[in-house]
TrEMBL record, chain A:
Record-annotated NADH-ubiquinone oxidoreductase 51kDa subunit iron-sulphur binding domain positions: 418-463
InterPro entries: NADH-UbQ_OxRdtase_51kDa_CS (IPR001949), Nuo51_FMN-bd (IPR011538), Nuo51_FMN-bd_sf (IPR037225), Nuop51_4Fe4S-bd (IPR019575), Nuop51_4Fe4S-bd_sf (IPR037207), Thioredoxin-like_sf (IPR036249)
Family membership: Belongs to the complex I 51 kDa subunit family.
The keyword Iron appears for this protein: yes
Record's protein name: Formate dehydrogenase
Lineage: Bacteria, Pseudomonadati, Pseudomonadota, Alphaproteobacteria, Rhodobacterales
UniProtKB/TrEMBL annotation, chain B:
Species classification: Bacteria, Pseudomonadati, Pseudomonadota, Alphaproteobacteria, Rhodobacterales
The protein, known as: Formate dehydrogenase subunit gamma
Keyword Zinc: no
SUPFAM superfamilies: Thioredoxin-like
UniProt-listed Pfam families: 2Fe-2S_thioredx
C-alpha cells in the first residue's frame, strides 16, 4: 500500500507532518506493509493536507485531513473521500506541463523522476548543437515568468554570443510577490526539473556554473533544493560531465536575506556578489555583464523549469497553447480571500472572472468579490467590471495592469481600497533600495498624500496622480516604477473609497 | 550591556571555521553572515573587523551590507521569534486584524522584543502560503489558516 502525504510548505503549515506521523503509527499498529511518500502538493491548497492512497494503481484523494482521519482513510471509509485525484475538476481543467510531476512524485527520488519523464528533455537537448537549443527556446515562444515577460530564447542568444572565460546561469527564486508560490511549489515538489532546466540553459549559452537565489522565507525549498543538488552530483547529472557528455555544469543554492528588491535581477546579482542589494543601472545588461561582471542568464524558476518541457514535447507543441503573443501555459496562483485557492496551470487566455469565480469558487468569506490584485505588490487591482480580461501579457497591459508572476489575490467587499493603495506606497518605502529618488522619497510622500486624502483633503488626489506619474517615469526599476499600478488602479476603479473619507470628515 | 568588540576565543574559533568554509565561494559575504547569525543568533559588531580582514573589504561596506538586509540582526532576538505575514493575500483574509490581536496577546509590538526576552514579533512580507492565509512562522515552523484561536495557542506556547 502506498500513501502520499505532502511535505510541501503549505501542507506542512496546515499540519501534514502530524498526518504523516499518524499514517506511520497506524501502519505499525496494524502491521501494514505501507510505503509513505512525502510528495509535493497537487496544488489544491484548500484541501491540504491532501492524503492520497494508491489502490489498484489509482490515487484516491482525502482532504483536508487531520491525524484523526487517518484510520478511516486507511480503511477506505473516511467521510473526507474525494474520489480519484485525477478526476477532480480542479485537476481535469488544467494543462499541467511545467507542473506535470509536482505532487505526483517523491521530489528527491531520481528513479521516480526518470520514470515520469524526467531527463528526457535534457537527453534530447544534449543531442543538439547549442545554437539549436537556443533556437528551440525562441521557437517555443517562452517568455520570462518572473514578471517582465522578456522572450527567454532571445536572452539566451545574447549570452550565447557573448565571449567570456566564464558565464553563469542564475535562477531567480526570490519570489517576493504576495499571492505567489509557484516557484516554491516547484522547488519543493520537483527540484530535479529546475536543475534540468538550468543545465540545458548552461549548455545552450556555454555556462558551466549556476546559482539558485532562494528567499530566506522558504526554508523547505532551500532544504529540498540543496538535497537535490547533492543527489544530482552523485547521479552524474551535475559535475564535470553532465550525464557522461562533454559538458560540465554545477550549481549552488544561495539564500536571500529578506529584501524584496533583491528579486529585481541586478539587485539580485549584487546580493549574490555579497553586496547591498541595490539596483544597477542598465545597460550593461546582465546578459553581457552580470554576476561578477560575466555574461549571465537570469531567469525565473518557472521559465527555467519550463525549458525541459520544450525539449521533451517539442517547441511547436508548447507554442500551440496560449493566446496572441503569450504562448504556452501559465501556472496561476489563486490566493487571498478565495474558496478554492492553489496552483492552477493553464494555457494563457483564460478570463480573470472565470479564474476567480469558476476555478476559485468566489470568496472564502462568501461575500461579494470587490477587487482582485494580479501580479503582486506592483500589480493593479481589478474590479469585477474588468473580469473579461484574458490572462495574457498584452491584455493586462492594456487594462493598465500586469500579469507579473501570475499571483491572483482576491478581496471581498470589506476591503478598503484606500488602505490597499496606502499599503502599496508603504511597502515601496520599506523595500526601496534607496538608489533613486522617485522611489525612495516618492513612496514616503505617497503615504503622506494618501493620509491627507483619508482625512478628507480631496485637493491631494491630483497630487497623488502627479506623484505616481513621477515615480513611473523616473524610477530606476519597477519597484518605484510599478507601485503606481496598485495605487492608481485603486483610485481609478474604486473612487468611492477615496471619497468616503471626506464624507466622514465633513 | 557592554559592547564586546573582541570575540571570546570560542566564538572566534566558530567565526574562523565559518570563514574557512566559505573561502572558495564566489561572493561569500551573505553565506557567511547567514552562518554567523545561525551560530550566534545575531551578527555581533565584533565580527566585522574579522570579516573585513578575511575578505579584504572596507568596514563601511560590511556594515552597509549587514544593515541593508532585514534578516540580519544587530541584537539578539527574544527566545522565540514570531513572524507574521503582513502582505496582501494575508490582509485579504483579515491579517491586519489578526496582527493587532497578536500584538495584544504577545504583549509586544512589531519589530520589538518583550522586556522579559520571551518573544520578538516581526512582520514578514509573504511566506508563500497565500492560498492558506493568514500565515506566520513561529521559531521556523510555518503555520497557515491562522485565526484568533491559533494566535492564542501560539502566545501560550511562546510565553510559557
Ligand atoms: C522589485 C522587483 C522584484 C522582482 N522580483 C522578482 C522575483 O521575485 N522573481 C523573479 O523571477 N523576477 C523578479 N523580478 C523580475 C526580474 O528583475 C527579472 O525580470 C527576472 O528575474 C527575469 O527572469 P525571467 O525572464 O525568466 O522572468 C522583479 C523585478 C522587480 C523590479
Ligand atoms: S501574503 Fe501572506 S503568505 Fe503570501
Amino acid at each position: 500500500m502506498k500513501v502520499y502525504v505532502p511535505a510541501d510548505a503549505a501542507a506542512r503549515a496546515l499540519g501534514s507532518d502530524d498526518v504523516a506521523a499518524a499514517v506511520q503509527a497506524e501502519a505499525t499498529r496494524r502491521g501494514l506493509d505501507l510505503t509513505l511518500v512525502r510528495n509535493g502538493s497537487r496544488g489544491m491548497v484548500w484541501l491540504e493536507p491532501l492524503v492520497e492512497v494508491e489502490r489498484d494503481g489509482v490515487r484516491l484523494a482525502y482532504g483536508p485531513a487531520t491525524a484523526a482521519d487517518v484510520a478511516a482513510i486507511l480503511d477506505g471509509t473516511s467521510a473526507k473521500a474525494l474520489g480519484p485525484t485525477d478526476d477532480l475538476p480542479w485537476m481535469k481543467k488544467q494543462t499541467r506541463l511545467t507542473f506535470a510531476r509536482v505532487g505526483l512524485i517523491d521530489p528527491l527520488d531520481m528513479a521516480h523522476y526518470r520514470a515520469e519523464g524526467g531527463l528526457v528533455g535534457l537527453e534530447r537537448a544534449l543531442a543538439l548543437p547549442p545554437t539549436e537549443i537556443v533556437q528551440a527556446v525562441i521557437d517555443s515562444g517562452l517568455r520570462g515568468r518572473g514578471g517582465a515577460g522578456f522572450p527567454t530564447g532571445i536572452k539566451w542568444k545574447t549570452v550565447a554570443e557573448a565571449k567570456a572565460d566564464q558565464k553563469y546561469i542564475v535562477c531567480n527564486a526570490d519570489e517576493g510577490d504576495s499571492g505567489t508560490f509557484a516557484d516554491r511549489m516547484l522547488m519543493e515538489g520537483d527540484p530535479f526539473h529546475l536543475i534540468e532546466g538550468m543545465i540545458i540553459a548552461g549548455i545552450a549559452v556555454g555556462a558551466t556554473r549556476g546559482y539558485v537565489y532562494i528567499r530566506s522565507e522558504y526554508p523547505d525549498a532551500i532544504r529540498v533544493m540543496r538535497a537535490a543538488v547533492g543527489i544530482g552530483r552523485k547521479a552524474g547529472l551535475l559535475g564535470p560531465s553532465v550525464l557522461g557528455s562533454a559538458y560540465a555544469f554545477d550549481m549552488e543554492i544561495r539564500v536571500g536575506a529578506g529584501a524584496y528588491v533583491c528579486g529585481e535581477e541586478t539587485s539580485l546579482l549584487n546580493s549574490l556578489e555579497g553586496k547591498r542589494g541595490v539596483v544597477r543601472a542598465k545597460p550593461p545588461l546582465p546578459a553581457l555583464e552580470g554576476f561578477l561582471g560575466k555574461p549571465t542568464v537570469v531567469n525565473n524558476v518557472i521559465s527555467l523549469a519550463t525549458v525541459p518541457v520544450i525539449f521533451e514535447k517539442g517547441a511547436a507543441f508548447y507554442r500551440d497553447f496560449g493566446l496572441g503573443r503569450s504562448r504556452g501555459t501559465i501556472p496561476l496562483q489563486i490566493a487571498g480571500n478565495v474558496r478554492h485557492g492553489g496552483l492552477f496551470e493553464v494555457a494563457f487566455g483564460m478570463g480573470l472572472g472565470e479564474i476567480v469565480n469558476d476555478i476559485g469558487g468566489g470568496t472564502a468569506s462568501g461575500r461579494p468579490v470587490k477587487a482582485v490584485q494580479v501580479g503582486g505588490p506592483l500589480g493593479a487591482y481589478f474590479p469585477s467590471s474588468l473580469f473579461d480580461t484574458p490572462t495574457c501579457y498584452e491584455s493586462f497591459a492594456s487594462a493598465e495592469g500586469l500579469i507579473g508572476h501570475a499571483g491572483i489575490v482576491v478581496f471581498d467587499d470589506t476591503a478598503d481600497m484606500l488602505k490597499q493603495a496606502r499599503f502599496a506606497m508603504e511597502f515601496c518605502a520599506i523595500e526601496s533600495c534607496g538608489k533613486c529618488t522617485p522611489c525612495r522619497i516618492g513612496a514616503v510622500r505617497g503615504v503622506e498624500t494618501i493620509d491627507r486624502i483619508a482625512r478628507g483633503d480631496t485637493a491631494a488626489i491630483p497630487l497623488l496622480t502627479d506623484l505616481c506619474n513621477t515615480m513611473k517615469a523616473g524610477s530606476l526599476c519597477a519597484l518605484g516604477g510599478f507601485t503606481p499600478y496598485p495605487v492608481m488602479s485603486a483610485l481609478t476603479h474604486f473612487p468611492d473609497d477615496f471619497a468616503r473619507a471626506k464624507e466622514a470628515a465633513e | 550591556m557592554p559592547v564586546a568588540d573582541v570575540l571570546e576565543p570560542h566564538a572566534r574559533q566558530t567565526l574562523d571555521d565559518i570563514l574557512r568554509a566559505h573561502a572558495a565561494d564566489e561572493g561569500p559575504l551573505l553565506p557567511i553572515l547567514h552562518d554567523i547569525q545561525a551560530a550566534f543568533g545575531h551578527v555581533p559588531q565584533a565580527v566585522v573587523p574579522v570579516i573585513v580582514e578575511a575578505l579584504n573589504l572596507g568596514k563601511a561596506e560590511v556594515h552597509g551590507v549587514i544593515s541593508f538586509y532585514h534578516d540580519f540582526r544587530a541584537e539578539p532576538a527574544g527566545r522565540s521569534v514570531v513572524k507574521l505575514c503582513r502582505a496582501e493575500a494575508c490582509q485579504a483574509m483579515g491579517g491586519d486584524h489578526l496582527a493587532h490581536h497578536a500584538e495584544r496577546k504577545l504583549g509586544v509590538g512589531f519589530h520589538e522584543t518583550r522586556a522579559d526576552g520571551k518573544v520578538t514579533l516581526e512582520p514578514v512580507y509573504c511566506l508563500g502560503l497565500c492560498a492558506c492565509a493568514p500565515a506566520a512562522m513561529v521559531n521556523g515552523r510555518l503555520v497557515g489558516r491562522l485565526d484568533e484561536a491559533a494566535v492564542d495557542r501560539i502566545a501560550t506556547e511562546v510565553l510559557a
